[in-house]
Amino acid sequence: MLSRPFLIYPVVLFFAVLVIDKIFLLPVFHGEFLQAGNSVFYHQRRVLAERLIHDPKIKETKLAVVFGDSRSYPYSEMGIPKEKQKDWSLYNFSGPQAIPMYSYFWLDELLKKGVKPDFVILSLSPEAFDDSKGLVNSPFLRLACDKECREFVWKDVPWKDRYEHWLDQVFTIRAIEPNMGLFISRLKSGRLKEYKAFYNKEFQLINYTKGDYLMYATTANPTEKLEKDAVRISAIYMRSFQMGKSQLPYVKAFLELTRANQIKTLVVWPKVYGKYFKEYEKYNIKNVWWSQVAELSKSYDAIPYDMNEESKCDLFNDASHQSVFCFVDQMKDIWERYADPVSR
């Protein structure tokens, strides 16, 4: 091999890459290293938990807590009927592409810290239950699950996500997912400090309220745009659907906690745009997935709530998210029928 040094070059290059990669093990890249989107939200939820735990108001009002993915961002105190707003506090722990594992761990953590909600909304999307989509490793294992958490869930992590997680351990840069375009933009404009939450505008916007993000879906797009978006999202999430095994146990574990603590619980299937819903129908999602979720909910005294049937609002920000304008009537209905019904 020494007589043919070019054979050594790939080996040297490989080890050089490994050495450079280990730079991303430095503390600066962990904890509070906010890029955009997912990392901002998942960091904010940890900050939000501390706010909730130390909020004196929750001792004076009833407490509602929302868990779910981005389709649940608009659940807000502002949506509670005005005559009841003074009686309620609402915290929203929804996360981008969040899976039931994430919802379970937050509820469990809050209960252990002495926070017991009066009402819980668990919002579930069928895409999270297809293990082939890779949502367990990214974003959950990467951004929201520490060593103790990983040890707890590892038995339920699909092989594909285990492999991806192993690659993240070998090549740290994968787990960090550095956004070089964002880095260059911040470097040129002198905004590198925005990697810290205190200076990050996106974090400040999300952190201004109690976890709700009303800015996410403020538009009501026209049919032509929604039709195109339905094709785009279908190509990403609904090329196929297979009911996986990793998430349903955590829905069950979540409901076991709510029943044991006598927490009134609503399990919501968020509404999506009609053309995208046809992809659900193609794979018989209602029978394959929702029927299991609904039956499990009822068995633990929770209430299944199919927004695709219950909601008459047909305004959408994109094919996967209803417009925030729909949530006023939806929350009014939820509060009057389930969270805080008027005695007759």
Automatic annotation (TrEMBL):
Protein name: PF07611 family protein
InterPro entries tied to this protein: DUF1574
Stretches that traverse the bilayer: 6-29
Taxonomic classification: Bacteria, Pseudomonadati, Spirochaetota, Spirochaetia, Leptospirales
Pfam families: DUF1574
Record keywords: Membrane, Transmembrane, Transmembrane helix
